[in-house]
Design goal:
By secondary structure, the chain is an alpha+beta fold. Helix 9 packs antiparallel against helix 20, helix 12 (286-298) packs across helix 18 and helix 13 (340-346) packs across helix 18. The chain is elongated, with a radius of gyration of 31 Å. The relative contact order is 0.11.
Length: 564
């Protein structure tokens, strides 16, 4: 009986093995067998198009070709190597070495080859050499938006920018051309060719307005040349939903002529500083401090200052052994009696020190967090920096005092632009975004982006009061060079000393201006950052005029009529 059971058990094992091979493993074995007798040439999918918010093409494609060689099918390897090297500019000896190896079944000779090269190749009739269509990325505006769009590698994959962030969506699905061959890879006499079509990638419609973008590019290029700065950056936001209308950094590079041979230079030029780099904002940050004070006063906080409160007339404050000064010497009674609106006009540091200290660490940090400081904004872009905010548990009074006027804190340009937009748009903080919609390869809209409201950071009343004060900064205060006759422009200047190795870097400043219009219902907000200008370095003289130029262009582009 035991022998019968043993035999039955063995038969069960054998049957289970047959079942596994035939049913479970069968499809893979068939695929492996087929693969031994077939060779595939990839057909590269057309990459999805990228357009601006109005459908203007920003990134497209032109037809090119990939060239492959099957070494076992090449009869005269030395001749083939010489011909291919001559056409595609490769090393003939290195190619011959690859063709002579029995370790590879297929070699990629060239990607993104031109039609003229393929026509020349065909004229030689080389056996074992194949080509298939791929495509090369073409950028309609050269260096415009270069740090935002990014670029692709030789195989068509996104390397930086939106090309990288949305690579899986843009890439599509490759097809293939399948040839029947013998076991060593030589085509059979009755060769069967099977073609599987590639599926084009989906396209992106961005929030970018290319007309505004080109205006920004021209303005910062001019500012770079006239100021002798290390770099100039600008972002233009729609304050109503935080869609990015323009984003630029200069120096830049041409997307159609990427300097791939110089990695260090390429890394520097392709970096999107508005999103990825941090800096000490200086007086532009006073917008946040003022917003917190106004909101707390409206809520009945006894520690907050009213809009009619007159700040201490002294030009200095001493906090924890640190002396904080107003840039003005207060001579002849100038700037000695200031309300909050006047303190914003005059950009007087001690007044904002008073506010921060009066609100206290816990309350002030509530607003810093609500305005997105010390955290990423969540924009659809890789490499966003967190910014730098002293941990709340470690904040000393002298730190809090300096944060109040934009020191001892570091932000990205994007963070500050978003915080300022929320302060003047009614108090609403949205997730900033670069994508407006996804467009299918057939041209139909597959998905529309819906703005994401994160929270309301201050009340509409507080926001309205602040916007009016900031309009005064442009009409009567330090932001006068951003003033445009007939239009309600608000804003705030900033001039911050730079630090190197923990010490103030002599003669190095970051000059900035954040502005918006119309002040009573903001539709456009711009932040201009000028890094290390030479000569005049105040935000009021270096950055504010750049914003004025951009706003004037927007007025002309959109045919915005003056009020009244």
């Amino acid at each position: 009986m035991s022998v019968i059971l043993a035999i039955a058990f063995i038969f069960c094992i054998i049957f289970a093995r047959f079942f596994y091979i035939q049913v479970v493993w069968g499809r893979e074995l068939v695929w492996r067998a087929t693969d031994q007798w077939n060779r595939e040439i990839p057909v590269i999918a057309e990459r999805g198009l990228i357009t601006d918010r109005n459908g203007e093409l920003l990134a497209g494609n032109r037809p090119t070709y990939s060239v492959f060689v099957r070494p076992n099918a090449v009869k005269n390897k030395e001749y083939a190597s010489t011909v291919l090297a001559g056409i595609f500019g490769t090393d003939a000896e290195a190619l011959l070495e690859k063709l002579s190896s029995d370790k590879v079944s297929e070699i990629t000779v060239a990607r993104q080859a031109e039609k003229s090269q393929i026509e020349k190749l065909v004229s030689y009739g080389l056996e074992g050499v194949y080509y298939a269509g791929d495509n090369s990325r073409v950028y309609a505006y050269g260096d415009a938006l270069c740090q935002v769009l990014g670029f692709t590698s030789s195989d068509g994959s996104g390397v930086t920018g939106l090309e990288k962030y949305y690579n899986s969506l843009l890439s599509g699905e490759n097809g293939e051309i399948m040839y029947t061959t013998d076991i060593v890879g030589v085509e059979t006499e009755d060769c069967t060719i099977v073609y599987r079509q590639a599926t084009a990638g989906d396209g992106l419609r961005l929030t970018i307005d290319i007309d505004i973008q080109l205006s920004v590019e021209d303005a910062i290029r001019s500012a770079y040349a006239s100021s002798g700065a290390k770099s100039v950056s600008c972002i233009v936001l729609d304050p109503q939903d935080f869609g990015v209308l323009a984003m630029a950094n200069y120096p830049s590079y041409d997307l159609n002529d990427v300097p791939r041979e110089n990695t260090e230079l390429l890394n520097e030029l392709s970096r999107n500083g508005i999103v990825c780099d941090i800096y000490e904002p200086g007086s532009t940050f006073k917008i946040i401090t003022a917003a917190a004070d106004i909101e707390e006063y409206l809520r009945g906080n006894a520690n907050a200052f009213s809009t009619s409160y007159i700040f201490n007339s002294s030009r200095t404050r001493t906090v924890g052994g640190t002396t904080i000064k107003c840039w003005s010497d207060h001579a002849n009674g100038k700037h000695t009696a200031q309300t909050l609106a006047q303190a914003l006009n005059n950009s007087c540091n001690p007044c904002f020190t008073d506010i921060a200290l009066a609100l206290g660490t816990d309350k002030f940090y509530e607003y810093l967090t609500a305005f997105g400081l010390g955290n990423v904004t969540g924009i659809d872009f890789s490499g966003e920096a967190l910014g730098m905010l002293v941990p709340q548990s470690l904040v000393r009074d002298c730190d809090l005092a300096r944060i109040g006027f934009g020191q001892t804190i570091a932000v990205t340009g994007l963070q500050l632009a978003c915080a300022a937009a929320a302060a003047v748009n009614g108090g609403y903080y949205y997730t900033p975004h670069l994508i407006k919609g996804i467009v299918s390869s057939d041209g139909s809209v597959a998905e529309e982006y819906q703005p994401v409201l994160r929270q309301q950071v201050i009340s509409e009343k507080a926001s309205r009061i602040l916007a009016e004060m900031l309009e005064g900064v442009v009409s009567d205060g330090s932001g006068k060079k951003a003033y445009i006759e007939g239009y309600r422009v608000g804003g705030k200047t900033g001039t911050a000393q730079k630090y190197e190795d923990g010490h103030i870097a002599a003669g190095k400043y970051v000059s900035s201006f954040v502005g918006f219009f119309p002040a009573d219902n903001p539709q456009y907000l711009a932040l201009v950052i000028v890094d290390e200008p030479q000569g005049s370095y105040y935000g009021s003289t270096v950055a504010a005029p750049v914003a004025r130029e951009i706003f004037t262009d927007i007025i002309n582009i959109k045919n915005i009529q003056p009020f009244g």
